[in-house]
Amino acid sequence: MADTGSRNTSFRAKVRDLLAGKDVEGVLHGLGSLPLKRSLNGLLASFYDTDPLVRWKALSAFGILMARLAETDMEQARIMMRRLMWSLNDESGGIGWGAPEAMAEAMYHSRPLTDEYLRILLSYIREDGNYLEYPPLRVGALWGLARLAKKYPDDLKKIEAPRYIAPHLMDEIPEARAWSVIALSNLSEHEYCSRLRRLTGDMAPIYIFDGREMKQTTVSKIAKEAVKTLGC
Description:
The chain is mainly alpha-helical. It has two domains: 1-123; 153-232, Leucine-rich Repeat Variant, CATH 1.25.10. Helices cover 67% and strands 4% of the residues. Strands 1-2 form a two-stranded antiparallel sheet. Helix 6 (99-109) runs antiparallel to helix 7. The radius of gyration is 18 Å and the shape is globular. The relative contact order is 0.08.
């Protein structure tokens, strides 16, 4: 057992080194010859990393590999999704760092996973659903919805996502406000233009990952871009 634990620790360290030194494509190449499940488990450990760039690259790589797993073994992909969901449950004893984002990334790259789990992701921001009380997790769910709104807007509209996202424009957490703005903009929701305009004066700073690096911006800049995009 000790040998197995040591091997797992060593593997996680190797994955972490890949994440620290490579872009997402490089990470995927480095993991390319390994079994999908082992690679996914190695990436999971980096969701807790203190370096946000390492964390986001892990999430990005995880989503791509989850889509590959869904193509070859959908039941194993479901097991991994349920594992993420369980980590968000109070009974799990954990916090579930990165779980909403990981679920969203997996869905972004896999239509079958979107069909099965989109409503569940939305439930994490609904007060009449599985509302995530811990703000960083709620922000993660809103980020995921904003990400998916870009690819699956019609699906999100069918489950009335805008009406559940809109209240978070007034969230106490700046990142939650920002991702709510982006989600509604991606969904072309003109109904909320007046609320978006109010946020153009919100100078709260936030950091976003653009796929390669972390960039600082403000809620104001994001709201102004949304207002311009929607022609509010």
